[in-house]
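Technical annex, item 7. During the second reporting period the consortium partners agreed on a shared format for inverse folding records so that results from different sites could be compared directly. Each record opens with the tokenized structure and is followed by the designed sequence. A conforming record, contributed by the partner at site C, is shown below for reference.
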């Protein structure tokens, strides 16, 4: 029996539903999700393996107009994954009008020599007429495939996979069949903590924080995790800690519950908040946090 395999990049504007889609495709949560723009800051790799195929999906940061060096590096990460793959999914929020940002992305995608699918997400919030009008607004691009889905409701995901396999060639298994993600535990733990901060905070805070894991200690039936939450300003430190420590306790509680589910044992989570002024524009700090400068054409 022939075995198919290949790589698929998931690209698009912020809040289009890229992370929700990759979680749905690999049938497990590997990317954090929130209603805040620019939740994904790095490329997330998810792997779906069946008897006849293995598909490797790459969830990329939302392409946006950057306001700092971190934003520029996020964009360069996305652009780098336009190439070196077998298929590109360009996912859009079907409920949002076509704008300058969409034009900017489609102009870049137009130059690619590989199949590009238009994935119209959130169709559960659209009627048939709105969907037809959305398809018409992209008709000049000549996408290889146009597939409406609802990542949140798991609508038409099987069809998306079926169509994708038509563009895959016979290949090898790139990852072990039981592997769903390709990231070290420190990255996963830090992302879970960051997700809880995104869920609990508002305004500028979500974009101003980073999380780094300083220590993981494995004991007989438990794991100790030391995490540092970085913020831009002293005032943000106060918001993260909260009145009488209420916010930091709630962040820790939510994160610990999910970490215990993932690790399968008791977790002792210690969180510290540290001010690193203007960290999003400091190259050395970004390098230390793993937001490397990615080259692309």
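Designed sequence (site C submission):
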């Amino acid at each position: 029996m022939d075995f198919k395999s290949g790589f698929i990049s998931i690209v698009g504007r912020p809040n289009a539903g890229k992370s929700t889609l990759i979680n749905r495709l690999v049938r497990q949560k590997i990317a954090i999700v929130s209603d805040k723009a620019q939740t994904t800051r790095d490329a997330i790799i998810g792997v779906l393996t069946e008897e006849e195929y293995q598909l490797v999906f790459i969830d990329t940061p939302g392409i946006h107009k950057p306001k700092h060096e971190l934003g520029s590096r996020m964009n360069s990460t996305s652009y780098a994954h336009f190439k070196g793959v077998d298929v590109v999914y360009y996912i859009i929020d079907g409920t949002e009008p076509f704008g300058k940002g969409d034009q900017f992305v489609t102009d870049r995608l137009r130059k690619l020599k590989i199949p590009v699918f238009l994935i119209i997400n959130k169709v559960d919030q659209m009627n048939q007429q709105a969907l037809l009008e959305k398809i018409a607004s992209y008709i000049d691009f000549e996408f290889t495939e146009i597939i409406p889905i609802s990542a949140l409701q798991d609508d038409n995901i099987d069809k998306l996979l079926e169509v994708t396999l038509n563009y895959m060639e016979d290949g090898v298994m790139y990852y072990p069949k039981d592997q769903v993600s390709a990231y070290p535990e420190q990255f996963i733990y830090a992302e879970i903590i960051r997700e809880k901060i995104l869920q609990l905070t508002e305004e500028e805070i979500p974009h101003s924080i980073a999380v780094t894991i300083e220590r993981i200690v494995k004991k007989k039936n438990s794991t100790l995790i030391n995490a540092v939450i970085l913020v831009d300003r002293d005032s943000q430190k106060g918001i993260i800690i909260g009145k009488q420590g209420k916010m930091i306790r709630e962040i820790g509680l939510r994160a610990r519950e999910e970490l215990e589910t993932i690790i399968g044992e008791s977790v002792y989570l210690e969180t510290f908040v540290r001010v690193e002024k203007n960290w999003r524009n400091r190259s050395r700090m970004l390098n230390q946090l793993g937001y490397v400068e990615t080259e692309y054409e």
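The two ends are 38 Å apart (CA to CA). The chain has two domains: 4-170, 185-288. All partners now use this format for quarterly exchanges.
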